[in-house]
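Support request, please re-run this one:
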Amino acid sequence: MDATGPVFVGSSVHREPATTRYSVGGTRAVCDGGTHRWENTGRVPSGALKAGAADVEATLTELRSVDGLLLPDFHAVERQTVKLVQDRANGSHPPCCRDPEGHRRRFCRGPAWSRVREARHPGGMVSLSHTVVLAPVPRAWFVDALAVLVESAESGRAEEGQMLLPDGRVLSDMRLVEGRHLRPGAVYDVVLDENENGAGDEAGGAEEKRVPGDLGDSLRVTVREWDRRRALRLGIAVSVADVGLVGEGALRSPDRPREAEISGQARIDGVWSALSRPTGRARLRLDDWWTATDTGRAPRSAPLWARLECGAARAELRAVPRPDPVEDRWEVTVTVRIRGRRLFRPVAALALGLGRRRLQRALTDALENLARDWNTEVPRLTAMGRDDIRREILPPA
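Re-run finished. Output below.
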């Protein structure tokens, strides 16, 4: 086998009728042309495996460096039926299994892992954290700004699919393609790839003809619910180059915003299949956020929570704010936990361990850049009154 990076023998076990396959450790493979015996040991949740027929899968995986990132390259996969039996020598704790040739493969069964113990599990987990200082967004200003946005949307109207501003001007990059304006079921197309130099022959070329149903680089918005006392709920579908995204966002109690939530799934072409179908969800509890920043009382759980997962890994983000003790600002501590999923746990454990410093540096740089932009733009916005905000969001005449 031609390998440039470290190679590992990973294994997993599965027993019908369950659909879950449990990862069981990982062993470094010696690539010297000889035959070697291997044995993996790991834990599974309590009660997950019982005595009886099961199947074991072994994978030969190389970690290759691609643009500085370690990615798995699978060289071989083999499955075999085994019989799980109770290991009497070790009491009632670990069951083990034997293949038809009598080779023993042990799978420890213990209690489900707690959040603290999870970092020691063979599947591995890396925890990263960084604190940034942000300019505050006063609650009263946010409520006013949101009211202006909603009122501006409600003051528009649609005529033959064209969206018109209150003064009668046409929004050229938005069309109502289904339903009635801001009623449940209304669908809007927003074009994202307008030619900066103009359209058609004026830009020096023929106008592009769109295929019906092909949005190109565009955004489609569907109104699920529009009730200022209860909730604003919108469906979104984005198509940009090789990326497609479908999701839904909701804001509860818009007149007195309490909670915002967004979820969705993406399709990314031209990448490793285990990364090509990520799903995500995020939730912001606004009441808890402002209570923490105004009073300094620690919330029971993080007001901002997000999860992103794909076939290979899962990442969770939690952000907890508190008032800065010196200035009128927010100190926000962001914690990110990343771990492998399913068969990728052994490989991800090694990759995350080797790449932890690089991941921490990437998180720190990303948050510091975000803080710099936030602290530049937010003070300018929060200094605006209602009329200034309205002029900011509506295109000039």
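The helical segments are 139-155, 286-295, 345-354, 356-382, 386-393. DSSP finds five helices and 21 strands in the chain.
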